[in-house]
Design goal:
The complex is a heterotrimer of chains A (429), B (350) and C (326). Chain A is of the alpha/beta class and 429 residues long. Chain A folds into two domains: 27-139 and 301-357, 3-Layer(aba) Sandwich (D-Maltodextrin-Binding Protein, domain 2); 140-299 and 361-426, D-Maltodextrin-Binding Protein, domain 2 (3-Layer(aba) Sandwich), CATH 3.40.190. Chain A contains 18 helices and eight strands. Chain A has helices at residues 5-19, 40-54, 67-79, 109-123, 148-154, 165-179, 191-200, 217-231, 237-240, 252-256, 269-276, 313-324, 326-336, 343-348, 357-370, 375-382, 386-401, 407-426; strands spanning 28-34, 58-64, 86-89, 134-147, 183-187, 260-266, 283-285, 299-306. In chain A, strands 1, 2, 3, 4, 5, 6, 7 and 8 form an eight-stranded mixed β-sheet that branches. In chain A, strand 1, helix 2 and strand 2 (58-64) form a beta-alpha-beta unit. The longest helix of chain B has 32 residues, at 143-174. The radius of gyration of chain B is 30 Å and the shape is elongated. In chain B, the strands form two sheets. In chain B, strands 2, 3, 4, 5, 6 and 7 form a six-stranded antiparallel β-sheet that branches. Chain B contains 15 helices and eight strands. Chain B has 350 residues and is of the alpha+beta class. Chain C has one domain (91-324): MetI-like (MetI-like fold, Orthogonal Bundle). Classes of the chains: A alpha/beta (429), B alpha+beta (350), C mainly alpha (326).
C-alpha cells in the first residue's frame, strides 16, 4: 500500500518551518478582547481606526472572540497573568481585582465621575468608592415587548401602565387563545431576566446586613407564577425547560415569527428585531408589568475595562479616554442601537441610525424605563457575585419547570447552592 | 452492466433477486437521505436571510420577498398578492402599514393608494441567495489566516503524533525493559480520561511554558495520545518477532528496524491513527477556544465561533461560515476518498 | 508526485539513522527502547501526568485560585461533598445532586450509544459487504459525517429538531402534531444518542467492513455447500472471526462515548432540566462556566470519574485478552 499519509508529513515539514513567524511593529501594540452581539465589533474597529490616525504611535488590535471566551477563558487568563490590555466584559464586579485604576492616567477624572457616575460603582471592589475602572458603553434594561398587531387582530385591549403581571398574563392568554398563538408569554431563560419581575413582586434579594437572601415571599410569588404559567401553557416549555444549568435561551426567533404575544427580554433585542421583523408587524415596548412592590426590570450591560497587568498603562488610558469621550459614545450608541449609559449623552438623546420607526419608538420607551428602576434592582446588579445568584435561580427553576423537582425543593436548593459557592469563593490561604 | 444490475449477495452467486437485496438497497437509500440530508439542509439554510431563517414552516430553497420600484417612491416596495373586495387577486406593493391595515399601491397605477386588511395580503416571494452571509464575514474574518492556522495545527500535530506514538508503540510492543509495565498501566489508565476534565491543570502547564496564544499550545498537549499508542501497539504485537531477529542478524540498527521494517508493516494502523488525528485536530474546538484568544492565531473553528455573542447569535453568519469550514475538508475527502476509506478498510484491524 | 512528497520524510528518517546508530553504540541495544519511548513520554508526562497530579492537588484544596500554592488545603472535603448522599440510587437525595445526575445520565447515554453504534455499524458493514452497485459511493456517504466537527453536527441537528425545525414541518405536513423534541427529557436523550451515533458510525463501519473482508471467502462457500442457514453461518463463521475487530470497535467507541461532551452540550445544553447533562459537562461547567470557578470540586469529580474509568478499562482489557486466547 502507498504510504499516502506521508503526503501530509512531507508537506508539513516544509510548512512547519514557515509557520511560527510573528509580525513585528514599531508602534505600541495594545490588545483588546471584544465580543459582539451584532455590529459592535465593526463599529468599534471603525472608531479605533480614527483613533490610530490621530495617534500613529498606538495600534489597537481588536480580538473578536465569542462571548463564551469572555466568560470562561478571560478570567482564567487573567488569573494566570496572560490577559489582554483591555476587554469588553459583562462580569463587571467579578473581575474587579484585575482592573487598572484610570484615575491617575486620565486628564479629567471629574468628567468620568460626572458621565458614568451611577455605574462606576459596579466595577469597584467592595469598600472602594473612588476608583475609575471602566466605560459603561452599553446600558441594557430588561423589559417587555408585545406584538401589538396580534392584540389588534384579536380585539383585545392592551393593558395600561400600572397593569399587573396577572393582568398581562390574562390579556396575552386571551389574544393567544383567539388567534391560536403557541406562546402567550415568553421570558428569557436567565436569572437576570427573572430578577426584575421578582423584585416587582416584593423580592428583596438581600437581608438587612447586605448578605444575599434570595428566597423570600416576593421571590416565591414570582417563582410560583412561573411554575403555574408553564403548567397552564402560558409559557412554552422549550425556553426554560430545554437547556440545563445556567445556559441562556431567548425567544427572539419565536417572537419575530409572531408566535409570541408578549416577550419579556430587554433593550438589546431592538437592533435584531429591526433587522429580523422590520415592520412586518408592530412590535412595541410596553411599560413594565407591576407587582405589589414595584414595576421594574433589571439594569445591566457591558463595559470596556483596562487591566492592571498591561505594560502600557499610559497608552491604554489614552484609548480608554477616547472611547469614553462624548462624541464617540454617541456614535457608538447611534450605530449599534445600544442605549447609552453616559449621563450627558443620555440626557441629550441619541439619534439612532435606523429607518424603522418601531425601533426608534422602542428605544425611547426603554430610555423611559431607566428612571423607574427599583433601587433593589440597582443594588443587585452592582453586587459582585450576582451571577452566582442568577445561576442558582435559573438552574433550579429550570428543573422545576420540567418536573425534576418541586418548588419547595428548589427553595431549599437555591440558598444552599449560593452558600456553597460563596463559601468556596471566600476560602483563602 | 449486467453485473451492476445483478444485485446478488456475495454468498449466493448468480441466483437472481433475494428479498434481502431489496432490504439492502432500501437501507442504503435511507442511509443516503439520513447522512446527506442534514448537510444539504445546512447548505440551503446558509443562503437564507436572517428573516428567512426563522420562517415556519421552513422552505428548502432560500426565498425572500420580492420588491418593486414604484414611481414616486424612493425605496423599493415589498410586493404582495392582494385579495380585492370583488374576490379577484392582484399583485400590489405596500407603501406602509398601520396596525392591521395596509396602504397598498398598484405598481401599474402608482397615483392611487388602496387600504387593504392585514389578512387579505400574502407576500410574493422569489428565490434569492443571500450571498452577503458569506461576503460580509469573509471581509472581516481573516479567512486565509485562519485556514492556514488550521492547516498548520492539523498537519504538524498529526505529524508529531504519528512519529512519537509509533516510536513509543514499537518500544512498548517489541522490547522487555524495566518500567515497561508501569508505563503501560499509565497509558491504559488514561485511555478513557477526556482532556476536558483536566483542562485547568493543562492550562496551567501551558501557561508556564508561555504557550498561551501560540499554536504550540494547541498542538503539543494532545500529541501523545494514549489511544494512538494503544492502537499501534496492539497492531505491532502481531508482527512476528522473527522478522526483527532476522533484521538484527543482517546488522540493522534498532532505528533502521523501526523505520524500515516496523513502520511499513504497521502502515494500515498508522493510517487509521492519521485519519483519527486529522479529523480530531481539524475539528477541535474547546481547547483552542481557551488557548487562542488573539485573532492572528485563530483556527477556523475558533474564528467561526466569534459570531456567537452574549445575547444574540448571528445564525446567518454562523451557518455560512460553517459551510466554509466544511468546504476544504469535503474537497480533501472527495479527492482522497478512495485512499481514506480503503485505507481504513485495508487495515484488517486485528 | 507522491514520492516527491514522501521525500522529506524519508530524508529525515535517513538522516536520523547515523545519530541513532551512534546512540545505540553508546548505550547498548538493550537500552534502545528508552530512546523510542522517550519523546512520547516527555509530552505525555508534561501534558497528561503532571496535570493529573496537579488535578489531584486541586481536589484536596479549596478556593478559586488557579495557582496550587495559593490554595488552602481542605483534605477530603471536596470528596465528602460529592459523595454526601442519603441514597446513592436517588440523585436528588445527594448534596451535589448535579454530579449524580451526570453520572446516571452518562451511564444511560454510554450503554445505549455504544450498543446502537456497534449494532448499526455492523449492520451497515454487512450491507456494504454484499455485492452492491456503487459501493464506493455508499461507503463514502456513510463516512461523510465523520468529517464534521461535533459543534457543526450539533448545530445542524438542533436546527432540524427545534419546534420550528424541518422535522416538525414534516410532521405537521403529514397531519401530525409537532413535538418539541429537545424539551422532552426522553426525546432529548434519544436525540443525543441518535446524533452522536449518526456522527461517528461511519468510522466504525469501515473498520468492521475491513474485518468482514478479511474473512476468507471459502469458509462461506463451504458453509453454503453444507446447506447451512444464513443465520447459522453468521453466528458460526462471521461473528467469531469478526470478534477481534469487534473488540477494537467496542473499545474505541466506548472511549469516545464516555468522553462525549461538545456535541451533546451544543445540541441539548444538557437539558431539559438536567436530563442530558453528562458527567464531563458537569466537570467542565463546575470549573469554567460558573462565576466562582470551583476548580477543587471539579477536580475531585474528575478524579472520581477517572478511578471508575480505570477500573472499567482494566476489566475490559482482561475480558478482551481472555476472549482473544480462545
Amino acid at each position: 500500500m502507498k504510504p499516502y499519509w506521508a503526503i501530509s508529513m512531507g508537506a508539513t515539514t516544509a510548512l512547519a518551518l514557515l509557520a511560527f513567524a510573528g509580525p513585528a511593529s514599531a508602534a505600541t501594540e495594545l490588545r483588546m478582547m471584544w465580543y459582539s452581539d451584532g455590529n459592535e465589533g465593526e463599529v468599534v474597529r471603525d472608531l479605533l481606526d480614527r483613533f490610530e490616525k490621530q495617534n500613529p504611535d498606538i495600534k489597537v488590535v481588536v480580538d473578536n472572540v465569542a462571548y463564551k471566551a469572555i466568560l470562561e477563558s478571560l478570567p482564567v487568563q487573567l488569573a494566570a497573568g496572560q490577559g489582554p490590555d483591555m476587554a469588553r466584559i459583562t462580569d463587571l464586579g467579578g473581575l474587579s481585582k484585575y482592573y487598572l485604576d484610570l484615575t491617575p492616567h486620565v486628564a479629567d477624572p471629574e468628567y468620568w465621575r460626572k458621565s458614568f457616575g451611577p455605574y462606576l460603582d459596579w466595577y469597584r471592589k467592595p469598600g472602594d468608592t473612588t476608583g475609575i475602572y471602566g466605560i459603561q458603553n452599553q446600558l441594557t434594561l430588561t423589559g417587555p415587548f408585545i406584538n401589538k398587531t396580534l392584540f389588534e387582530q384579536a380585539g383585545v385591549a392592551i393593558p395600561k401602565e400600572g397593569a399587573t403581571w396577572d393582568e398581562w398574563a390574562a390579556a396575552a392568554n386571551a389574544v393567544a387563545k383567539k388567534l391560536k398563538i403557541p406562546f402567550p408569554i415568553a421570558i428569557d431563560r436567565s436569572g437576570h431576566r427573572f430578577a426584575g419581575p421578582a423584585i416587582s413582586m416584593g423580592a428583596k434579594f438581600f437581608n438587612d446586613k447586605g448578605e444575599p437572601a434570595v428566597v423570600d415571599e416576593g421571590f416565591k410569588a414570582m417563582a410560583s407564577r412561573i411554575k403555574k404559567w408553564h403548567d397552564d401553557g402560558t409559557m412554552g416549555k422549550e425556553l426554560w425547560g430545554s437547556v440545563s444549568g445556567s445556559a441562556y435561551k431567548g425567544a427572539n426567533e419565536e417572537f419575530a415569527n409572531a408566535q409570541v404575544v408578549m416577550y419579556f427580554s430587554g433593550s438589546w433585542q431592538i437592533s435584531q428585531f429591526a433587522k429580523q421583523i422590520g415592520d412586518a408587524f408592530d412590535w412595541v415596548a410596553v411599560p413594565q408589568p407591576c407587582g405589589p412592590a414595584a414595576c421594574t426590570g433589571m439594569p445591566g450591560g457591558a463595559g470596556t475595562v483596562a487591566f492592571s497587568s498591561t505594560k502600557h498603562p499610559k497608552e491604554v488610558a489614552k484609548v480608554m479616554e477616547y472611547l469614553a469621550s462624548e462624541p464617540v459614545i454617541t456614535e457608538f450608541s447611534a450605530r449599534t442601537l445600544i442605549l447609552p449609559a453616559h449621563v450627558g449623552v443620555a440626557k441629550k438623546g441619541v439619534d439612532f441610525k435606523t429607518d424603522i420607526k418601531l425601533a426608534k419608538d422602542a428605544l425611547s420607551a426603554f430610555t423611559g424605563h431607566i428612571g423607574k428602576l427599583s433601587p433593589i434592582a440597582f443594588k443587585l446588579q452592582g453586587y459582585a457575585y450576582n451571577r452566582v445568584l442568577f445561576n442558582a435561580i435559573i438552574s433550579r427553576l429550570g428543573q422545576v419547570v420540567v418536573g425534576e423537582m418541586s418548588l419547595d425543593d428548589a427553595y431549599a436548593r437555591i440558598p444552599q447552592d449560593i452558600e456553597a459557592q460563596l463559601a468556596e469563593q471566600a476560602r483563602k490561604k | 452492466m449486467r453485473r451492476a444490475i445483478a444485485f446478488l449477495t456475495r454468498r449466493r452467486g448468480g441466483r437472481g433477486w433475494h428479498p434481502t437485496d431489496v432490504l439492502s438497497y432500501a437501507y442504503l437509500v435511507l442511509g443516503v437521505v439520513m447522512m446527506f440530508g442534514p448537510v444539504v439542509w445546512l447548505v440551503m439554510c446558509s443562503f437564507k436571510t436572517q428573516a428567512g431563517l426563522i420562517e415556519f414552516p421552513p422552505s428548502l430553497l432560500p426565498y425572500s420577498q420580492k420588491q418593486v420600484v414604484v414611481e414616486g417612491y424612493k425605496e423599493p416596495l415589498p410586493l404582495f398578492e392582494v385579495k380585492l373586495p370583488d374576490g379577484t387577486t392582484k399583485p400590489m406593493a405596500q407603501v406602509r402599514r398601520i396596525g392591521i391595515i395596509s396602504q397598498m399601491v398598484d405598481p401599474a397605477n402608482p397615483g392611487q393608494t388602496v387600504r387593504v386588511r392585514f389578512e387579505d395580503r400574502t407576500p410574493i416571494r422569489e428565490l434569492s441567495f443571500a450571498w452577503e452571509n458569506y461576503t460580509t464575514p469573509l471581509a472581516q474574518f481573516n479567512f486565509t489566516r485562519y485556514l492556514w492556522n488550521s492547516v498548520i495545527v492539523t498537519s504538524v500535530a498529526t505529524f508529531i503524533t504519528l512519529i512519537i506514538n509509533s516510536m513509543a508503540a514499537y518500544g512498548l510492543a517489541k522490547y522487555e525493559f524495566r518500567g515497561r509495565t508501569s508505563i503501560l498501566i499509565f497509558i491504559i489508565g488514561t485511555l478513557m480520561i477526556p482532556i476536558s476534565v483536566i483542562m485547568v491543570p493543562v492550562y496551567l502547564v501551558v501557561t508556564q511554558f508561555g504557550m498561551v496564544n501560540s499554536l504550540w499550545g494547541v498542538i503539543l498537549p494532545g500529541a501523545a495520545t494514549p489511544t494512538g499508542v494503544f492502537l499501534l501497539r496492539q497492531y505491532m504485537l502481531t508482527i512476528p518477532d522473527e522478522l526483527i531477529d532476522a533484521a538484527r542478524m543482517d546488522n540493522a540498527s534498532e532505528w533502521q528496524i523501526y523505520w524500515r521494517l516496523i513502520v511499513p508493516l504497521s502502515l494500515p494502523a498508522i493510517a487509521v491513527l492519521a485519519i483519527f488525528s486529522i479529523m480530531w485536530r481539524w475539528n477541535d474546538f474547546l481547547w483552542p477556544l481557551i488557548i487562542l484568544t488573539r485573532n492572528e492565531v485563530y483556527t477556523l473553528q475558533v474564528g467561526l465561533n466569534a459570531f456567537q455573542g452574549e445575547l444574540q447569535v448571528q445564525w446567518h453568519f454562523v451557518l455560512a461560515m460553517t459551510v466554509v469550514t466544511l468546504l476544504p475538508i469535503t474537497l480533501v475527502f472527495a479527492f482522497l476518498q478512495k485512499f481514506i476509506t480503503t485505507g481504513i478498510a485495508s487495515t484488517g484491524m486485528k | 508526485m507522491e514520492s516527491l512528497l514522501q521525500l522529506p520524510w524519508a530524508i529525515a528518517m535517513r538522516a536520523l539513522e547515523y545519530p541513532m546508530r551512534g546512540i545505540q553504540r553508546l548505550i547498548g541495544e538493550r537500552r534502545m527502547p528508552y530512546v523510542f519511548v522517550l519523546p512520547n513520554l516527555l509530552i505525555f508526562g508534561t501534558f497528561v501526568v503532571v496535570p493529573l497530579f496537579i488535578n489531584f492537588f486541586y481536589s484536596v484544596t479549596g478556593g478559586t485560585s488557579l495557582f496550587p500554592d495559593q490554595r488552602p488545603f481542605v483534605g477530603a472535603e471536596q470528596y465528602g461533598y460529592l459523595l454526601d448522599c442519603e441514597d446513592y440510587l436517588k440523585p436528588f437525595s445527594c448534596r451535589e445532586d448535579q454530579f449524580w445526575r451526570g453520572i446516571y445520565n452518562t451511564i444511560t447515554f454510554v450503554s445505549f450509544q455504544v450498543t446502537a453504534m456497534v449494532a448499526l455499524s455492523l449492520l451497515t458493514a454487512i450491507v456494504l459487504n454484499r455485492r452492491i452497485a456503487a459501493r464506493g459511493f455508499f461507503r463514502s456517504v456513510f463516512f461523510y459525517p465523520v468529517l464534521l466537527s461535533p459543534v457543526v453536527v450539533a448545530l445542524v441537528w438542533k436546527w432540524i429538531l427545534q419546534r420550528e425545525g424541518v422535522l416538525n414541518a414534516f410532521l405537521t405536513a403529514l397531519g401530525g402534531d409537532g413535538i418539541v423534541f429537545l424539551a422532552e427529557p426522553q426525546w432529548a436523550m434519544f436525540w443525543a444518542i441518535f446524533v452522536s451515533t449518526w456522527a461517528h458510525m461511519g468510522f466504525y463501519t469501515l473498520i468492521l467492513l475491513a474485518g468482514l473482508q478479511s474473512i476468507p471467502r471459502d469458509l462461506y462457500e463451504a458453509a453454503e455447500m453444507d446447506g447451512t442457514s444464513h443465520w447459522r453461518t453468521f453466528r458460526r463463521i462471521t461473528l467469531p472471526l469478526l470478534w477481534p475487530t469487534m473488540l477494537v470497535v467496542l473499545v474505541l467507541s466506548l472511549i469516545k462515548s464516555v468522553q462525549t461532551f461538545d456535541e451533546v452540550f451544543v445540541l441539548t445544553g444538557g437539558g431539559p432540566g438536567t436530563a442530558t447533562q453528562l458527567i464531563v459537562q458537569y466537570i467542565y461547567s463546575t470549573a469554567f462556566a460558573t462565576q466562582v470557578h470551583n476548580f477543587g470540586l471539579a477536580a475531585a469529580a474528575a478524579i472520581v470519574l477517572g478511578s471508575v474509568l480505570l477500573v472499567l478499562t482494566l476489566l475490559q482489557m482482561r475480558l478482551g485478552s481472555g476472549k482473544d486466547k480462545d
